[in-house]
Every structure is written in C-alpha cells, then in structure tokens.
C-alpha cells in the first residue's frame, strides 16, 4: 500500500526573509570583520581560534539535535577537507587581507565557482562547459585580470596578495569538488563543525610555526579586533551557516546559493562606506562582471546523467547534501 506524500510544511515568509538577510549581510560583512580582527591579532592564530570555537559549537549543536557520533574515517576526511578549505582557503584570505582591501578580496574570492568549473573540466572524465558556462568563465577571468592589472588609477591589487588569494580560491574549489564524494557524517552541521575543528587546529599550528605566537602580546589587542573575532565566530561561522543550512531545507538550492552573487557586492559597499576603501570605476565594473559571470555559471543545470555521475559544474548544480560542505566561501 502506497503511503501518501507528507504535506509540505509551511514556513513564515518573514522567517525565510530573515534567514536570507543573515546569509547575505553576515557573510558579506565577514571580509571587513577579518580586516578589523587582524589589525592587532595574528591572522593565522585568529582564524584558528575562530574555527576551533565555531566548529566545536556546531559539533555539539548537531549532537544535541540527534546526529550520530562520527567515525575515525569521518574525522580523517574532515581534517583533509579542513586543510583544503580552512587552512588553504581561509588561511590565504586572512593573510592576504594584510595587503589587499576587504572589498577587493571578496571580489577575487567570488571567482571560486569559475575555478570549480575549470577544475571539473580538466580533471579525468570531467564535464566540458557549454556556451553559457564558457562565456561566464571568459567574463569572470577577464574581470579578474582587469582588477589585478597594474595601473595609475586606484583599485589595483597588491601582486603578492592577489597570488595568495588565487591559491586560496583554488584550494577551496578543489576541496568543494572533493567534498562531493567524501565520507562525511550525514548531518551537515556535524560535517561542517568537524571540518572547522580540523582546519582550525592546522591554522593554529601554522601560526605557531610562522612565529605568530612568539610575537603575540595580549595587551596590544584592541577592542575592535576582539569584537570582530567574536562576530566572525558567532555570526559568521555559526548563525549564517545554520541559516543557510535551514534555507536549503525550506527553499531550493538555487535560491539559497544566491548569496554568491550578493556577498561580494555587500563586501565592496561595506569596505567603501566603513573602512574608506577606494571604490574606483574599475572596481565597480569588475564587481558587475564577476557577479554576472558567477550567475551564468551557477544558473547552469546539468543533464540528468550528469547529476548521477556528479559531473555538474559550479555551486548551483550541487545537490543539497553536496552544497553544505562548499557553501561557505573562504571568507568564513
């Protein structure tokens, strides 16, 4: 006897709007918060403390919600992903923001879906992009080149900072692709928490190796840096992520993933309005072009057989379970 399909649960439009606002505004503001945090806090140690604390909170929240205890294999996989996404991805961001304005950092990191498409294309058995994705790649990379090109006008990017952000974006993109088939707990909150813990510990180790701990003085830390760290930990890594996780359950993945278009715009505006970062014509044009490129790539939908084999391109084509691990770009 066939059971009737369960009725779709109704959710308040106001609550959904609040969740979208949290994802858009909080994740868009984390780039500026990172800039404030590293004014007087060592970048790697700051990021390590942030992710260990946030990851531990997400771990126990998921356990309280009934998630099963993870296996040793789960921990190994989560640590590898933590190394790729949080050590390589976010670690590169916090270091580069010592040289690159927060708004421009957000724009370069926003190209992550482009790199996911390229990596998925060149890997063995990968998917060849269609005309829409190919056009998005050309537009996105041309805008990125314009952004980092040297020139007399304001808006150029420090070469070393840009190079580190490129590595960070590639590391995050590779981790996102690997997470599609990685052995992780079924609970998205548990999986994310474990990756944050693993990546956070590695960031703390890196900070110690590079001498951050030896040169750290508690008395030199400003109130603004401490407040920024608290904001990044509580809102950036917990509130926004749980809001995004909930949105994936009550709306479509395509709608929830629109944060990828909005976040860089929010970051550029906040950097200009609150931190006095230059907003040149070049930056405005690059922002529009990169957002357009990401939208073209993420709106592509793979054919049914591509969904089965996991050969889809970009963030917009991951199924709900896949999108959790790669939902948060390297800002946080």
Helix content: 55-70%
Structure annotation, total helices: 14
Mean pLDDT level = 84
- Low-confidence stretches are 303-328
Q: How many β-strands, per DSSP?
A: 0
Explained architecture:
By secondary structure, this protein is mostly helical. It has one domain (25-214, 221-325). The protein has helices at residues 13-37, 43-64, 72-96, 102-109, 112-122, 131-148, 159-179, 188-209, 223-250, 253-256, 259-275, 281-298, 304-309, 320-325. α2 runs antiparallel to α8 and α3 crosses α8 (188-209).
Short account of what is shown:
The chain is mostly helical and 332 residues long. It has helices spanning 13-37, 43-64, 72-96, 102-109, 112-122, 131-148, 159-179, 188-209, 223-250, 253-256, 259-275, 281-298, 304-309, 320-325.
Q: What layout of secondary structure does this protein have?
A:
Elements: H1 13-37, H2 43-64, H3 72-96, H4 102-109, H5 112-122, H6 131-148, H7 159-179, H8 188-209, H9 223-250, H10 253-256, H11 259-275, H12 281-298, H13 304-309, H14 320-325
Helix pairs in contact: 1-4, 1-9, 1-11, 2-3, 2-8, 2-9, 3-7, 3-8, 4-11, 5-7, 6-12, 11-12
